[in-house]
UniProtKB/TrEMBL annotation:
PROSITE patterns cross-referenced by the UniProt entry: PROTEIN_KINASE_ATP (PS00107), PROTEIN_KINASE_DOM (PS50011), PROTEIN_KINASE_ST (PS00108)
Family of the protein in this entry: Belongs to the protein kinase superfamily. CMGC Ser/Thr protein kinase family. Lammer subfamily.
Protein name, UniProt field: dual-specificity kinase
One example of a Gene Ontology biological process annotation: response to ionizing radiation
Region ranges (Disordered): 1-61, 98-146
EC identifiers of the protein: 2.7.12.1
Residues engaged in binding ATP: 195
Keywords: ATP-binding, Kinase, Nucleotide-binding, Nucleus, Phosphoprotein, Serine/threonine-protein kinase, Transferase, Tyrosine-protein kinase
Length: 501
């Protein structure tokens, strides 16, 4: 049933008959405060976003910037895994009761509620195209808006949202909600990806923060040249924040996984790395840090591929036709002037200054990019661990000792003993690190100059000290990228304007 608005508890019968209360103007302005009013007030605040839509097709000048507030819970699984708890509590149940109780005393409040319910039903029954029977049928199916126990919107293929988006299929699911493919009937039937956030306050708040960043990015780059995903529209659908994006292909990780983790060829690694550096440089130039870069958040514009058969390995192998990419997921992006949480980034791509809680800024994105480029080249993750101490041991095994300055400065002295990492190589964990990690250059698959240049770039990105780590402006000028010809769609952009405020 519809749950976009909570009804207040009915008035007590001692306040007079139904007719007396109905005729009383004074009563109309009175609002009861029941024992459950706190939950009601919270839901009414959420309802303030109800059917509020902002479309970039209209280029509205009235752009509302949400207050950026830190939302620590809107992170990836590994954020809270270290705290010993799942990112999303499976035992969590929605705080709203969808089976709305009916007043049994025939009060004015119950009558008024029925009229509100009837008006909402009439509004939802209107279809986008009055002449379209399919649209009317879809709208009728959408009369009852319900959530499952985890807060996901329950929908069916063919349902319509906002009298505009017709659901065609489900593209994926995450802790935040689901992504569906829709037909946008206001844009000539164009296909879009619609991100439907769970009706859970922490995810809704994070979605509002993401919308704020995406609005700033769209304002800065209206022609969509910066290789960040394009947001077309956003709205609140019965407590579910929804964001419409351009429809893209598979993520670079999913393509790798579907291809049996076969590494990308070095010429594809070069082009993909160059684009990622360009996109994130655009963010850094505008005082924004992504904080959650990983192959899952880098999507191909089109993931069509050519299939060849490998006689030696007796298997089919895929080669993506176009390596054009977009950077996505700005739910954790942080402006320089905003609160910086202690822990950011998904575990495998987390910089040492974050693990040691030394403070972080844009260089933590550069470290993540270094890990991503390595993964594209070899087909597997550089730091395959879920433990801080083991992660640091892997870093030392691959990159050399952690600088003494960082050891002295960190509050995490429990990881060190007498100025050195407290790590026993004779334990099972120690043997795992010794057997599965080796110095960085030993991962080279060829002695060709291109491969050595690539690893020289990765080494500069995986510098321990953030102040000594290469900037993305410098990285784009690295000899590894010399063979790339700058084209109009990969040129540098003007970064003179500041979108951070």
């Amino acid at each position: 049933m519809p749950h976009s608005r909570r009804f207040r508890s009915s008035e007590r019968s001692s306040r007079g008959s139904f007719h007396e209360r109905y005729r009383s103007r004074k009563h109309k302005r009175r609002r009861s405060r029941s024992s459950s009013s706190e939950r009601d007030r919270r839901h009414r605040r959420e309802g303030s976003y109800h059917v509020r839509s902002r479309s970039y097709d209209d280029h509205s000048a009235d752009r509302r910037a949400y207050d950026r507030r830190y939302c620590d819970s809107y992170r990836r699984n590994d954020y809270s895994r270290e705290r010993g708890e799942p990112y999303y509590d499976p035992e969590y149940r929605h705080s709203y009761d969808y089976r709305r109780s009916r007043d049994r005393d025939g009060s004015y409040r119950s009558c008024k509620s029925s009229r509100r319910k009837h008006r909402r039903r009439r509004r939802r029954s209107r279809s986008f195209s009055r002449s379209s029977s399919r649209s009317r049928q879809s709208s009728r199916r959408a009369k009852s808006v319900e959530d499952d126990d985890e807060g996901h919107l329950i929908y069916r293929v063919g349902d319509w949202l906002q009298e505009r988006y017709e659901i065609l299929s489900t593209l994926g699911e995450g802790t935040f909600g689901r992504v569906v493919q829709c037909m946008d009937h206001r844009r000539g039937g164009a296909r879009v990806a619609l991100k439907i956030i769970k009706n859970v306050e922490k995810y809704k708040e994070a979605a509002r923060l993401e919308i704020n960043v995406l609005e700033k990015i769209n304002e800065k780059d209206p022609e969509n040249k910066n290789l960040c995903v394009r947001m077309f529209d956003w709205f609140d659908f019965h407590g579910h924040m929804c964001i419409a994006f351009e429809l893209l292909g598979l993520s670079t990780f999913d393509f790798l996984k579907d291809n049996n983790y076969l590494p990308y060829p070095i010429h594809q690694v070069r082009h993909m790395a160059f684009q990622v550096c360009q996109a994130v440089k655009f963010l850094h130039d505008n005082k924004l840090t992504h904080t959650d870069l990983k192959p899952e958040n880098i999507l191909f514009v089109n993931s069509d591929y050519e299939l060849t058969y490998n006689l030696e390995k007796k298997r089919d192998e895929r080669s993506v036709k176009s390596t054009a990419i977009r950077v996505v997921d700005f739910g954790s992006a942080t402006f320089d002037h905003e609160h910086h949480s202690t822990i950011v980034s998904t575990r495998h791509y987390r910089a040492p200054e974050v693990i040691l809680e030394l403070g972080w800024s844009q260089p933590c994105d550069v470290w993540s990019i270094g890990c991503i480029i390595f993964e594209y080249y070899v087909g597997f993750t550089l730091f395959q661990t879920h433990d801080n101490r083991e992660h640091l041991a892997m870093m030392e095994r691959i990159l050399g000792p952690i600088p003494s300055r960082m050891i002295r400065k960190t509050r995490k002295q429990k990881y060190f003993y007498h100025g050195r990492l407290d790590w026993d190589e004779n334990t099972s964990a120690g043997r795992y690190v010794r057997d599965n990690c080796k110095p960085l250059r030993r991962y080279l698959t060829s002695e060709a100059e291109d491969h050595h240049r690539l690893f020289d770039l990765i080494e500069t990105m995986l510098e321990y000290e953030p102040s000594k780590r290469i900037s993305l402006n410098e990285a784009l000028k690295h000899p590894f990228f010399d063979v790339l010809e700058l084209e109009p769609n990969t040129k540098m952009w003007d970064s003179s304007r500041d979108i951070s405020r």
